[in-house]
User: Which sequence fits this backbone?
């Protein structure tokens, strides 16, 4: 294998592993802030109980995100020196702003949030929780701005093959940024919601019949039920934006080879890049055109118009279907769950099990979505400006092979340890005693009791 | 664009200064928490819990200085970044693996079943050692100007142990400040031992350093300012001596002046760093790449400088705030 393929594999491995954890913590930070606020407002101890369980999950997840993120900061120079050489004038300051405004903020206030509750006044602890959540979101802002610029570059000029910045606000708020940013924040919200709902359902299943998991389950399920239609909308708008700026990516997503009017929506197919056609198509006529152009016989440009300039079709095509499929499943689960929780106060057994199975569904959808957009950008690293192959390192392949193997092994071990630790934390919480209601505010206790006797 | 009046040379110097600040703060801050990891005793549960507790609230932010340092190198001097990290690809990879292992062990050890805890403790200790050795090795190769011959390798190995000893020393001083009783007594013992290793390490590295680059030898030994510069190593060794006296007397002082060893360690780190800085200015890779030759575009640097001027003082301020909040002896770690 050559340095290009190995570097791409290693970068894909590192970033795929890394993104899993921020995807949880970005939204989990806001969930924690919400739990903390509810605790401050109601004074009921159950909110603090929920907070404590999830702040431990947050700490572990955050640690994994930090260590895998440090690795990322080295990858640009080691494996993609051409990227910084040619696009560093844009990428550098955006990364710099991320470190300066977000990384220090979240890492420093995390200390107060995790260990400072007895050392600082309550308002400062609440503030620290807020700052950590805001920091994670701010970090997403900068990195997604940079990532979006790779897809839809603007505000720059190219002199002798090197990119120079001309207009920073055009660079930061490039055309795909608002869509990508909202799509990712919503993805994070759904990932955290399904994680909270899934682990809470698991706790209920193994006999943890306290108020805390029930209340957490409700909060997360209702949140997911609200976020999922918003996400479908955001995804649709992002798709329209992609059609405008990267039509070849949309053609790969839809598996359209020849430009056609009234393109069908392919539910399934096997794209064949050799023959430049699809096999085993299962299609709904005209629907792809309708979704993308809002007209039944709207025109969609085919891949054959972009020969040599379009991404590999199969990975984009399949990943897109995995993402959409997972989204539909989320819609069903979140709405069915909300219905049962609202009407009966509890989930039927099968749905509880579905929630447990879907604990990490957000990860699947998020990764699939990222593969669609990133593989879909190929063969370019910066669309129309810099090809991936021109940015790669001159390192000996065996060195990259060694580092890739070591990363793969360590990440596999950490993934197993992470999931096992989460399940163990759930099992441990079964043995903890229910909150005695005596010390809580009478009125709120009654309200919560009604809520849970509903259950 | 603000800072339009700054010349490119001034910008280069500012970014070199920022890089130096980030590296120095990283070496000090992550230095003590890595040092605590290096000293981690395999068989004493109470010591281990207390040692982790002493660095728990800080390690995450400490490590961020590394990201900033690498970031500045990448942003301001991209050519240097890629030359350094491509030459040092494998040690950098080992350092990252070490950082990953020790970073996650913090959390896992507190949450896994009791019988699995020793495994994560081992990961924490050896992850820390792998990190410090790799960093020292990288520092050594960097000092030689990214040479890879056998002499440079030998120098780098020496630097690997020197840096590990330095981190262990400042880690022990940190524990003297943050712990009590048996652990503190043990920390005094560690500090004394590390001090000896460190002193010989500094001496060896300083002397060998003179043999690596002609310019450096001329600057220190033959230039007119050489005598002024010599106060730096002299002060450094005076401080090492002072520290060994302090470490002998302190246990009997009944808790007074426990901050002294750590303060002296800070000064020693600062002086060693200054000596390196003076030796190699204006190079980002000694003898090879001067900073002006690899500086990236002025407008991008000006744009980031706006943020840095506003944000860096804030970072320093809330870092101080956190150190004040958690001042005094560390408590048992709990999430509430």
Assistant:
């Amino acid at each position: 294998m050559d340095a290009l393929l190995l570097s791409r594999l290693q970068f894909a491995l590192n970033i795929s592993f890394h993104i899993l954890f921020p995807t949880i913590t970005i939204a989990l930070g806001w969930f924690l802030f919400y739990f903390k606020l509810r605790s401050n407002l109601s004074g009921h101890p159950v909110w603090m109980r929920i907070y404590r369980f999830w702040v431990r999950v947050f700490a572990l997840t955050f640690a994994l995100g930090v260590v895998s993120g440090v690795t990322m900061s080295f990858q640009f120079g080691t494996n993609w020196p051409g990227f910084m050489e040619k696009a560093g004038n844009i990428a550098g300051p955006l990364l710099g702003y991320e470190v300066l405004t977000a990384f220090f903020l979240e890492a420093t206030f995390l200390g107060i949030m995790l260990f400072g509750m007895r050392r600082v006044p309550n308002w400062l602890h609440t503030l620290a929780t807020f700052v950590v959540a805001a920091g994670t979101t701010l970090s997403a802002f900068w990195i997604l701005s940079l990532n979006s610029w790779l897809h839809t570059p603007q505000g720059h000029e190219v002199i002798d093959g090197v990119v120079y910045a001309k207009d920073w606000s055009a660079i930061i708020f490039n055309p795909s940024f608002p869509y990508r940013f909202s799509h990712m924040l919503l993805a994070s919200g759904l990932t955290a919601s399904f994680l909270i709902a899934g682990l809470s359902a698991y706790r209920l299943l193994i006999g943890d019949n306290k108020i805390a998991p029930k209340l957490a389950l409700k909060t997360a399920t209702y949140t997911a039920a609200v976020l999922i239609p918003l996400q479908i909308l955001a995804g649709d708008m992002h798709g329209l934006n992609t059609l405008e700026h990267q039509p070849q990516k949309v053609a790969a997503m839809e598996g359209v080879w020849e430009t056609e009017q009234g393109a069908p929506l392919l539910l399934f197919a096997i794209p064949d890049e050799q023959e430049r056609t699809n096999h085993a198509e299962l299609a709904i006529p005209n629907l792809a055109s309708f979704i993308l152009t809002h007209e039944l016989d709207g025109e969609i440009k085919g891949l054959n118009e972009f020969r040599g300039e379009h991404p590999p079709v199969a990975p984009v095509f399949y990943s897109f279907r995995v993402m959409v499929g997972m989204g539909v499943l989320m819609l069903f689960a979140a709405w069915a769950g909300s219905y049962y929780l609202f009407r009966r106060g509890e989930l039927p057994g099968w749905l509880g099990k579905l929630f447990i199975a879907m604990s990490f569904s957000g990860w699947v959808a998020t990764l699939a979505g990222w593969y669609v957009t990133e593989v879909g950008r190929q063969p370019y690293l910066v669309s129309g400006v810099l090809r991936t192959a021109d940015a790669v390192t001159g390192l000996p392949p065996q060195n990259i092979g060694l580092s890739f193997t070591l990363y793969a092994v360590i990440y596999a071990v950490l993934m197993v340890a992470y999931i096992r630790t989460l399940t163990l934390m759930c099992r441990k919480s079964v043995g903890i005693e229910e909150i005695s209601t005596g010390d809580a505010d009478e009125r709120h206790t009654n309200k919560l009791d009604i809520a849970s006797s509903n259950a | 664009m603000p800072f339009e009046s700054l010349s490119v040379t001034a910008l280069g110097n500012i970014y070199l200064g920022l890089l130096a600040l980030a590296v120095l703060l990283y070496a000090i801050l992550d230095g003590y928490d890595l040092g605590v990891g290096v000293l981690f005793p395999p068989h004493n549960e109470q010591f281990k819990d207390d040692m982790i507790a002493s660095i728990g609230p800080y390690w995450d932010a400490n490590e961020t200085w590394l990201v900033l340092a690498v970031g500045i190198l990448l942003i301001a001097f991209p050519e240097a970044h890629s030359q350094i990290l491509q030459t040092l690809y494998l040690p950098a990879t080992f350092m990252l693996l070490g950082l990953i292992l020790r970073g996650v062990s913090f959390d896992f050890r507190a949450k896994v079943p009791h019988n699995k805890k020793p495994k994560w403790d081992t990961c924490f200790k050896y992850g820390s050692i792998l990190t410090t050795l790799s960093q020292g090795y990288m520092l050594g190769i960097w000092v030689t100007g990214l040479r890879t011959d056998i002499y440079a390798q030998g120098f780098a190995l020496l630097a690997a142990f020197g840096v590990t000893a330095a981190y262990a020393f400042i880690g022990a001083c940190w524990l003297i400040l943050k712990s009590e009783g048996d652990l503190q007594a043990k920390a005094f013992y560690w500090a004394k031992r590390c001090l000896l290793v460190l002193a010989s390490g500094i001496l060896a590295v300083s002397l060998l350093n003179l043999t690596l680059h002609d310019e450096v030898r001329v600057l220190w030994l033959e230039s007119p300012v050489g005598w002024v510069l010599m106060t730096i190593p002299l002060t450094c060794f005076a401080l090492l001596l002072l520290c060994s006296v302090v470490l002998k007397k302190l246990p009997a002082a009944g808790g007074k002046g426990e901050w002294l060893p750590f303060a002296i360690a800070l000064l020693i780190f600062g002086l060693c760093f200054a000596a390196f800085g003076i030796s190699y200015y204006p190079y980002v890779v000694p003898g090879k790449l001067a900073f002006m030759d690899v500086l990236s575009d002025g407008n991008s640097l000006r744009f980031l400088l706006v943020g840095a001027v506003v944000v860096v003082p804030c970072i320093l301020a809330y870092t101080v705030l956190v150190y004040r909040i958690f001042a005094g002896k560390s408590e048992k770690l709990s999430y509430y």
The CA atoms of residues 92 and 134 of chain B lie 7 Å apart. The two ends of chain B are 47 Å apart (CA to CA). Chain B touches chain A through 63 residues (CB under 8 Å). The first strand of chain B starts at residue 283 and ends at 285.
